[in-house]
Amino acid sequence: MNSWMEELEEAAVGEIQQNVPLHKHTTWRIGGPADVLVTPTGKQELIRTMEILHRSGIPWTIIGKGSNMLVRDKGIRGVVIKAGEALDYAEFDGAFVRAGAAYSIIKLTVMAGKQGLAGLEFAGGIPGTVGGAVYMNAGAHGSDVSRIFKSAEIVLETGELVTWGPEEMAFSYRHSRLQEPESRGVVLEAVFSLQPGDRKEIQAELAEHKERRRLTQPLQQPSCGSVFRNPPGHYAAKLVEESGLKGFSIGGAQVSTLHANFIVNTGQATAEDVLTLIAHIRSKVKDRTGIELMPEVLVVGER
Asked: 67, 176, 223, 226: which one is catalytic?
């Protein structure tokens, strides 16, 4: 066993597993193995994990529900850190909600609605965690995390614990400072500032969004959610559909017949199938419209 793994064991940071297939940990149901998967049992254990990995020079990747992520077929070298039960919580205090990084953003939206708090309705269909939503400034229906974000507790890859507000996060469209190589870190928890609203109106809006998703999105098939960012003034799904690509497939990866900005795994899709299909879509749309579609899915691992 490597010395750094022995150190993680001795520090009792949580569950440590080797050679773990990651297709079981992503919503696309695609991905090769992680060399090591660590599931810390608490905040201090996660901080300790980061300290040990940093000191030993071991590369790391954080994973929540594995949505909006494509793990390449050869898997991920180094350590994959999975936010576990210790970060799966939410607490309401007036119009503020504090939620752990592993908490479902959909579940948080439903809870806020029951409390009569408005502001999270846009997130009712985002299939990820609070940590992932903050990391990518997740959004839908004309709003995003930056509109309600108050602060986040973050452990930097050095193991330093910091609290960042909106200015430090430097949010932009589907982007936060955490995506920059020089400021990588892991969200431990986030605080959102909501507004008192009419409970029935909030729940009606959530129900409307849910019904629209049921009718227009391939919810019964493995996917990552939206694959491409919407270019300024355009909708990615419309550009893909108008390029005649709805239903087009490469290997086990297919452009959804319901929603053209979704790529579904029809059963045996590989990451290479998905990457090849993404490249084909971008090429076809660029040739037809001159518009360069930019993926919003995070591609990780060894090709």
From this structure: 226
